[in-house]
Structures are given as C-alpha cells and as structure tokens.
Amino acid sequence: MKRAVSVISMILAVLFLLSACAKTSPSTDGGKEPLSLDTSASKSNTGSTGDEKSNEPDNSGVDSGSGSENSGVNDAGDDNHVEIVISPAMADAFDIDDEDVNGDHPFTSLTKNSDGSFTIVMTKGQQEDVLEMLSSTISEAFDELIKSEYCSFTDIQANDDYTSFTVKTDSEELGLMDSFMIMEFYTFGGMYNTFSGRTVDNIHVDFINDSTGDAVESADSGDLEAYFESIAAIGDYEYDDYEDSSETEIDPDSVTVVAEYTLPDSFGWYTRHYYVVRNDGNVAVDVSTNTVAYDADGNVVSSADGTLSALAPGCVALFYEAFETDAEVSSYDSVFSVRETYYIPVMQDLSIERTDIKGGAVVKVTNNGEIDAEFVELTALFFMDGKLVDTDYTYCTNDDNIIPPGQTISAQLDSYEEFDTMEIYMSGGQNYGW
To answer: Does residue 187 sit in the same domain as residue 270?
Structure first.
C-alpha cells in the first residue's frame, strides 16, 4: 500500500514543482497551441506502441471516474493562456486549498469558486509541460508497479489520454494489491484529463493473463456503485447500509472487554496495552480506543489510540495501544468508540487448529467461507505464573495476502521467554470489497 500512496504523491509533487519552474522562468513557448491528444497512439511502460485500441471519450463528462464531477478548459481571454476548472473532488486529490489561493502558487491565477471548485489560469506552455511530465511520471509509476513484489503485473499499457489501460498479469485472478491498483489507474486518468481539459465518462482497465491471453478481470470507473453493490451482496449487506455504515455508531456496551494486559518492551521505549474483546452485538463492528496512561502516583505519563476492524458478531479478537514512555504504567483511562464496519467480515468463517511445540505453537487457519479472507493476523500471548511475559505475531496468508475459500494456511508463533501458558488470537481477516 505504501507503493500506491507514494506514486500519487510523486505525481503531485512533480506537477507543482514543474508548474512553479514554468512560471518563474520567462516562457519562450507561451504561444503554443494546446496539446492535441491523439488517442490513436498507445503508451506503455516499455515505450512500445503495442496494439492497444484507442478509447476516444465523448464529452458529456466526468473527472477521475467518480461519475459526479466535471473538469474543463476554457479560453482565458487571450491566445497564450488556458482556464482550467478543478472540481472539489479533484482539488482534494491535488491538495489544492484556500491557503494556495491566498499564498504562493505556480499559476497565473488561482481562485476558489462558490461550489468549492477552483479555477486555474495558466499558460498553454505550462499546460503542455504539465501534461508531458504527468505522462512521464505515470510511465515511471507503471515501471514501479511492475517491479513491485506486492503486485502480479508484467506489463502495463495505456492509450494516449489515459482513459483505457491494459494490464498483463502472471496470475489467473487478481490479488488484493492488484485490486487496490484499479483505483490508482482511475486516478492517473482523472489527473491527466483534469489538466488536459477533457471530460470523460469512463476510465476502463483490462487485466489479461500474460501466459494465456485470457481476460482475468475488467473494471470501469463508471461502474463503481454497481461494483460495490455486488461486493456487498456477497456479505448479505444492503448497499446503502454498506456505504453509510461507517457513520453508524453502536452502543459501546455491545463489545465486552474480556481481558486486559500490559507489557513494556525491553528497551524502555514503549508499553503496550492489550485488549481482548468480544462482540456481543448482532452486527460486525470497528472498535477504537483513546486512552490516557497513569503512573502509580496518578500522574499522566502517555496517551495512545488503538483500533480493531471488522469484529464479527460472537467473535473474540485482540488489539493493543502503544504508549511511548519509559515510565511504569499503573492504570488507564479509556474511551471506547464502536461503529458498524463498512468492511465485509470473515472472521466468523475462519477456524483455528493449534499444535503446541517447544517454544511456541504451529497454527493452521482454515477459511470455511465463500470469499477470500484478507490479511489474517495471528497474535500469541505468552504467560508465566499468570503474568504476560512475551508476545509474537505473524500474518497467516498466501503470497496474495489472502486465505482463499476452502484452503488452510499454517504459521508458527514463538517466544524467547520461558512461559507456562499461551493464548492465541486472530484479528484482521476482513474482506475490503475493493
């Protein structure tokens, strides 16, 4: 996931840096015509044209594929400048806000409109330079995605206006991180077309198996709502509930704290406060805490937060807060928040088989459900005479970070401390629906 975030950040940083350079240096090409975006060509991370079909959009319009916002270019009143309207959604993506309007910015002018959109006036030379740099940076991002150990991509091509992407993969089905990248391709297309002035109805992504040439999956930005509806149906959720559930607060008493444990690290840097919680309600929830830690004299020594996602009804799980202090923590004052999750829970469909070995245990987790279990994490607590003395954790998934339906994955948990009892908990395991 860090890779996805860094690619977007790189595009934004380069965009504003280049625009600043174009403004502070006298332009010798301010009279250039705007870029003519010939969609008959194809762009690839390898530089070849390939056989990608063009996807000439109609001009009825949407931005990055959200289906609700428009961006556009108008003549700014002379032959050397263009006026670009940035929708509120795309302004958030570009991190444009009131401070930019009132402070330094690289454009000829930048104003905020009453509907939350922004109007940018820039030279046509700046516009062309920005589009060329965006194209180059997106191509570099393709290379990084292909090299990434988290994705299965072997080649990525795009048409000239970045409204159609063809992605080759060495897998027969998309893994979790592969699916995350769909939104990144939508963002690439949205960013490019925002500054080109085109309005597009859809950004399309095809995933093709590199060995067989068979279609693995396709995605369209215009179908996002239908996509989430289909995902929600898998978990027997209504779409409206799925979409808005993160705003639904649940009575904190529906989650019971079964046990609490404290364990300082050996370096004196952090003290971890562990909660074992059970969902006694009838809906899957996200649990969060905000806690203040005190020493034996009642002095505040630190504060920390904790989170647990997609705790299914009837399930027990573990999470912790990490207090950055070398003081000995004696007590806590915690505030719990419980909300209905917008993830699709799968913990209720996972079973654990534990075999104790010297110094730890081997744990087998089986997915008895019908959908992938993602990022399943196991945590072991090791006790001596009833006192927590050590912990260990590991993810229990395959190379795609999932446990497919009907499959069993094993993992090992160990302790370097002497212990007489051990408890093992499972967390995560939610299907994100992306």
So the answer is: no
Mean pLDDT by 10 residues, the chain (434 residues): 39 42 37 32 45 36 34 57 80 72 79 86 88 90 88 93 94 83 87 83 92 92 60 41 53 91 88 95 92 96 94 94 94 94 88 95 94 91 96 92 93 95 86 49
My answer on whether 138 and 9 are in the same domain is yes
Domain that holds residue 140: 2-232
| pTM confidence score | 0.48
Q: Distances from the Cα of 164 to the Cαs of 6, 104, 183, 299, 412, in angstroms?
A: 22, 35, 13, 59, 44
Any domain includes 190 = yes
Q: Which of 413, 400, 287, 262 is nearest to 347 (CA)?
A: 287
Q: Which two tokens stand for residue 34?
A: 């705007």
Question: Do 251 and 329 fall within a single domain?
Answer: yes
Domain shared by 376 and 228, yes or no:
no
Q: Which two tokens stand for residue 55?
A: 């996807």
At 220, the amino acid letter reads D
Examine the fold and report which residue of 197, 232, 267 is the final residue of a domain before the chain moves on.
232
Which H helix or E strand runs over 311? strand 300-311
* Residue 417 one-letter amino acid: E
Q: Which helix (H) or strand (E) holds 383?
A: strand 376-384
